[in-house]
Each structure stands twice: as C-alpha cells, then as structure tokens.
Write a structure and sequence with these properties.
The protein has 364 residues and is of the alpha+beta class. The protein has 9 helices and 20 strands.
Length: 364
C-alpha cells in the first residue's frame, strides 16, 4: 500500500511538471498571419499533415510555443503553425527599429517569405528564412545582395529586390517598366493565379552543377513571378512560402479550394548529358493546352534559352487540379550555359514578365 501511494504522488508530480514545461509565455498572445497562405498542421513539424489553411490577415491566439511553432485551435481541435510567418498584434518592433539612428542602415523585408543565404547569390545554401515586415541591420553589400546581421549573432545574405533597400538605377528602371507595361498591355486585375514552387523540404528536386538544389532556385524564381503578377493586378496564391515539403495532392488542393483562374507549377530541369538545355511547357488537358500555348509563346519570344517545345503529360499535379494548369521547366541546372543565365535576376525578371504577358493574352 505504501508503494502504491508513492506511485500516485510521482504520477501527480510528473503531470504537474509536464504542464509547467509546455505552458509558455506565448500563451494568450494574439498574432496576425503575415503571408498569403499559411498551412495549419496537426503537429509542430514541417512534415506533419496539413489540416487547414489560414490567409493573410487572419488572427489567432497562441496557447503554447515550442520549436518555433505555436499551438492554436482550428475547427475546435489543437493545431500548430510556424511562428516566423506570424506578426504579433499590436507589436511596435518594426516601427521602433525603423526609428533607429541613421548611422545604422536597416532594411525591411517586403515579400511574404524570403530565404537568407550564406553568400551573395542564389547558388549559396539557405541558412534561415524571414517574412514580410521583418527588419534587419545591413552591414555590407555585394551587387544586388545585402549582408545582414541575424538574431543568433551570425550573418546572412538577402536579395535586395526582396527588401525596401534603395534600388540601383537598373532595378528602378525594371520596376518602372513593369508598371508602365501593366497599364499599356493589359491588366490581371480580377484574376486569381496559383503559383506552385516545385519540391521543397525533404524533396530537393533535381541537383545541378556545384550541388545546386532545384527547390531553392525554383522558390526564388516563383517569388519573383508572384511579385510581378501582383504588379499587374493579379491575386496570387503561392502553394509554399518557405522550404518545406508538400505532397502533389496538397498542392492541387490549395488551388482547388480557391476560385483559381490558372495554376502554374515552376520547375528547373536536369539530365545526365550536360549538353542538353532549354525550356519546356507541359499540360494535361485541353484547357491546360490553351494556357500553355500563350505562356510558352511569350516565354520563348522573351528569354535567351533554347525552345524545347510543349508537351502533354499526365503529371499528377496537373491532372488533379481543376483550373487550367501547366508545368514549366525553365532551363537545365545541369547545363553550364543555362545555369549561368537562369541564376541571374535579369532572367527571372524576364520569365516573370513573359508569364504575365502570356496570362493577359490567354484571358483575352
């Protein structure tokens, strides 16, 4: 009987200890979603099942926090979301940081989800992620890249065109031209476009020269396309807003749960024979063919890569998407010439503008 009583006391103490450890200072904190689409998962893990979606501006209450995730409730059930995509409501962090002494240069992220890299270029590895509204101290620059200080005491590099930093004359001209073209050749206002950055997380996609992962280059290109389409007035939904895994069914589901006018999956290609190069556009249905025709024509008349043509393929992500859907292969990361072109900001801006013009032609 004495041993039984001791066991009961130990169980009670253990229960109390677990309760104290999982209850954090985040309990009761309210947040606003700071990205276009935020996945709600059943556990605090980027590979956990997605049980719902939140949209930019949605608010939630956090009841505990761990491993960079906050626990809330979704449809009456406990659920988890990544904290770095949330903005504390009533937070004055950004405004106070902006009022820092002018002797310390600071930049603010202007895109929904941005990679921070180990060096000034897309071929450097991703060391961290950030989201719209986050502010950093700038300590150096190299070309169109800015070196910033991180909260852990380390440094990283961020693309200047994804921040509010002062743009070079070339960048200013590109943005001005985009705005002018938007008014002169047409608008995408009233249309919803889903952009699908291929691969992500545990799925790196193709591996190119110098060990470049397709998933990283695809994500940066898709972010550029998204911003350009928004400049043309489109509502843009991105299937993934960071480096995490999504199944093909999940990607199609994101499109199918919205009134989507076009679905575009973005990829880069690879092949064992390094001389193979160029771009392809794939479709699966008649509606997809019409979309592919206009966008592929616009791409091939704009970018300096070899035209490998269009093709019909029964890809699952196209087959399961209700909206007209296409898959783009924007060059070979296993070909030295293609890779030298597709890693540049000029190429990605050309691709984005060509897709916008192709969409305008398609909707006409």
């Amino acid at each position: 009987m004495r041993n039984f009583g001791i066991g009961i006391i130990l169980i009670l103490l253990l229960t109390l200890f677990v309760h104290v450890e999982t209850t954090t200072a985040a309990s009761g904190q309210t947040y606003e979603v700071g990205v276009n689409i935020l996945h709600v998962r059943e556990a605090a893990d980027g590979d956990a099942d997605i049980i719902g979606l939140l949209q930019q501006g949605d608010k939630l209450t956090a009841f505990q926090e761990k491993y960079g995730w906050v626990q809330t409730y979704y449809a009456g059930e406990p659920a988890w979301v990544a904290k770095h995509y949330l903005i504390p409501t009533g937070s004055t962090t950004t405004s106070s940081q902006k009022s820092m002494s002018s002797a310390t240069a600071s930049i603010t992220v202007t895109e929904s989800s941005v990679n921070i890299r180990s060096g000034p270029g897309l071929d450097y590895r991703v060391v961290a992620g950030t989201s719209q509204g986050e502010t950093f101290n700038a300590i150096d620059h190299s070309g169109e890249w800015i070196q910033i200080s991180l909260s852990n005491g380390q440094t990283g590099w961020i693309a200047s065109w994804l921040t509010d930093s002062i743009q070079s004359p070339k960048e200013q001209k590109n943005r001005t031209n985009t705005a002018a073209q938007s008014s002169s050749i047409g608008s995408l206002s009233g249309y919803t476009i889903v952009l699908d950055a291929g691969h992500g997380g545990r799925d790196p996609g193709a591996i190119g020269l110098r060990g470049l992962y397709e998933k990283d280059l695809v994500y940066d290109t898709t972010s550029t396309i998204a911003q350009t389409l928004r400049n043309y007035g489109a509502t843009v939904i991105e299937t993934r807003t960071g480096d995490y895994y999504l199944s093909l069914d999940e990607r199609a589901s994101i499109s199918n749960t919205h009134y989507t006018d076009a679905f575009i999956s973005v990829h880069y290609n690879s092949f064992p024979v390094v001389s193979v190069q160029g771009i392809n556009t794939f479709y699966s249905s008649d509606a997809g063919y019409a979309l592919a025709k206009d966008i592929h024509s616009s791409l091939t008349s704009t970018v300096p890569l070899n035209n490998r043509g269009m093709g019909k393929e029964n890809y699952k992500v196209l087959r399961n998407t209700i909206a007209p859907a296409i898959l783009l292969e924007l060059g070979f990361i296993t070909n030295a010439y293609d890779l030298s072109i597709i890693q540049t900001a000029d190429y990605q801006n050309q691709v984005a503008d060509a897709i916008a013009k192709g969409l305008i032609q398609y909707f006409r």
